[in-house]
Amino acid sequence: MNPFIAEKIYLFLTYLRGEKISPTLNLLIQNEKVDSSEMEQIKVNKAKRLLIYACQNVPFYRNNYDFNPDEIKSLTIKEFNEYWKSIPLLSKSDVLNNIHYFLSDKLKDMKTHYDKTSGSTGTPLFLKVNTSCWTVRHARDLQVKEWFGIRNGEKYALFWGQHWSNKSKREIALKDFLLNRIRISAFNQEEKYLEESFKRIKKFKPTFIMGYPSAITDLCSFIKAKNCDLSFLKLKAVITTAEPLRNYQRKIISEICNCGVFSQYGGAEQGFVACECEKGGFHIFSDTTWLEDENGEMKPNTLTEAIATDLELYSMPLIRYRTGDEVIFKEGKCSCGRTYPLLERVEGRSGEDIILPNGKKINANLPSYIFKEIASMGVIRRYRFVDKKDGMLYLYIIPTQKFNQEVLNLVEKETQNAFGKDIQLKIEITNVLENMPNAKHKDYVVINE
């Protein structure tokens, strides 16, 4: 479809939903240019309004906290930052156990849309999101695409979930057509499907690619094994989302696509939180999201759980919400000139350490580091460790055509270096791995039977 026509269709559809995209986008772009002190003032002002609204209109906050609206309004930035830290952190279980108490009393007067978390923790959360909040999320998406020279309506390939029912398939197919994109399933890892996807992308000629980094890496590894690439497309960018982008994934995607690879971070509960720019800075959108560590700070160079508040979410406010994601904040400013605070990187899901079959305790992110260099060689498309509680550790590998005995020996050596020489390891080559919720790649699974 012609990009101009696709853009007009998009704006018409958002208009029907009640979203004022253009003025919201202009405001977000304007905020890029404010100095850091003004950015902080914007964040605090929005947080004050949300907090006052919550204590007056949301049962959970009204019944559990003694907020004084007049006091909140009178606080300076410094005073409010300290006040904010005193608000107890909110967990997903808090919300799930009291779901109706988080809904605004004025919900019936709001136009809302449903959203839900991925369920990667095992427990999905359904949310009602007010239209003005959706507008900000959609406008933010357009804003960051402009950083890479992408205009609304341009053709793209989306690596995302697929729906099984015929009705859902038809609805998704229509949506993809109207948004001028093709959808590559993140569920299907078979070589036959990857071959078909490669052909579809070549025929469609997208200007950028977006989606799960694990699924995009699958296809790029497949293409590399065929001694091909996607440089002929002259892609403007590959934008990854929904999972942390690993260095080895960035390397192989960049090599095959011959363009920059940029990570986004966000979620249903916290909105569009951060995105890497064309200069590589990982910008936190503090004009719409309050992101902090567990101590209410942004301490740099320290791995911490991300605590987030979507400052635009009024239908179901989630203030100081534990995301379960681990991040590292960064000091300084980006050379692009934007004044947003920075992340160093998003590491992944926080949680308990892994207890290996040999009794050794390891960090939950260690499995991915074993394959940091190996995966960039283009010899492995995907992998997963499985502990079946029988004393063995199983490693399932989907290989490319370049996989050989030498690589197998290297994998075994690197695994033992990381997990211990006494680990009882069984490596199995397979064509497919069972999908985790929403097709998110999980590299260490414990099966309790």
Keywords:
single chain, 449 residues, alpha/beta, 19 strands, 11-stranded mixed β-sheet, GMP Synthetase, Chain A, domain 3, 36% helix, 4-stranded mixed β-sheet
Descriptive overview:
The protein has 449 residues and is α/β, with parallel strands linked by helices. It has a domain at 354-446: GMP Synthetase, Chain A, domain 3, CATH 3.30.300. Helices cover 36% and strands 22% of the residues. It contains 14 helices and 19 strands. The protein has helices spanning 3-16, 21-31, 36-57, 59-64, 69-74, 77-85, 92-97, 131-147, 166-178, 191-204, 213-225, 247-257, 366-370, 405-419, and strands at residues 112-116, 126-130, 156-160, 181-185, 208-211, 237-240, 261-267, 271-276, 282-284, 289-292, 303-310, 321-330, 342-349, 354-355, 361-362, 380-387, 393-399, 425-429, 444-446. The strands form four sheets. Strands 4-3-5-6-7-8-9-13-12-11-10 form an eleven-stranded mixed sheet, sandwiched between helices. It has a four-stranded mixed sheet with strand order 18-17-16-19. Helix 2 packs across helix 8 (131-147), helix 10 (191-204) packs across helix 11 (213-225) and helix 11 (213-225) crosses helix 12 (247-257). The protein starts with a helix and ends with a strand.
